[in-house]
Design brief:
258 residues; alpha+beta; 8 helices
């Protein structure tokens, strides 16, 4: 009798675990579909299904160190990050919401080679009333329209805030992140580095590219009013990373859906 009860209890625990996992997958599915309605059709049989028929493994079932998460994340790993909009405390050690990225996911969406990405780049006029800087960004997912809307809102800010977003340092460049073999999201035309004169970057400030080293101080000079406008349009900010990059904004709506 006791053995039978134990078996029933074990089966119940297994059922509850599966139910909880199913709910979690359903939540992730809704997150992706809401963020990328033109790209993602759903998650089925542990695969993220793109509308073009591409299937990418959702959960590889592996436990990973932080270094392994950076190097070989699955899409579940990418979605686990908690990115909070608005003013937040300085990031805790190892808290890098958005730096864990599955390359195949972004290559499928924006292009797997420089040539493929460039086919979908369009020119926007950044700060058209004051600077008129021409920038190349992706039209996929309406990134170009969102960037232009951000530009229009930034120009309405008080004049003393404009220097932070003038002389944009870069949008599209196919390259890896310094000190790694991981592609930067600049490679996909969905990222902007604003004026480096007012920016801080963990590699510059700490004279290292070693992600395993402790960062002694967090430094930021970018006003919250600027961050709020980017976040409103689905862009995360590198200033919310332990490995801070305060010039950096990238389009990542899957981390910001309500």
């Amino acid at each position: 009798m006791k053995a039978a009860l134990l078996t029933i209890h074990t089966l119940l625990l297994m059922y509850l675990a599966r139910a909880q996992n199913t709910t979690s997958i359903q939540q992730y599915e809704q997150q992706l579909k809401k963020a990328y309605p033109d790209q993602i059709s759903g998650i089925k049989d542990n695969y993220v299904i793109f509308r073009n028929g591409t299937r990418i493994i959702f959960d590889d079932g592996k436990e990973k160190t932080l270094a392994e998460l950076y190097a070989h994340p699955d899409i579940e790993d990418q979605l686990k990050a908690t990115y909070t909009k608005g003013k937040t405390p300085n990031p805790a050690e190892g808290d890098d919401p958005g730096r864990i990225r599955n390359d195949t996911f972004f290559k499928t969406m924006y292009g797997a080679t420089p040539a493929e990405v460039q086919k979908n780049l369009v020119t926007i006029t950044w700060l058209p009333k004051t600077v008129k800087q021409h920038l190349k960004v992706s039209r996929i997912n309406g990134v170009d329209k969102k960037m232009q809307a951000i530009s229009d809102e930034l120009e309405k800010l008080p004049a003393h805030l404009l220097p932070y977003v003038q002389q944009v340092a870069g949008t599209f460049t196919w390259r890896v992140i310094k000190g790694t073999d991981r592609l930067s999201t600049h490679s996909f035309g969905i990222t902007m580095d604003i004026n480096t004169r007012y920016s801080n970057y963990w590699q510059w400030d700490n004279k290292t590219t070693d992600e395993s080293k402790k960062i002694p101080n967090y430094i930021n000079r970018i006003p919250q009013e600027i961050v709020d406008i980017f976040e409103k349009h689905g862009f995360i900010w590198g200033g919310k990373w332990y490995h801070y990059d305060t010039m950096h904004f990238e389009y990542r709506p899957e981390l910001m859906v309500d």
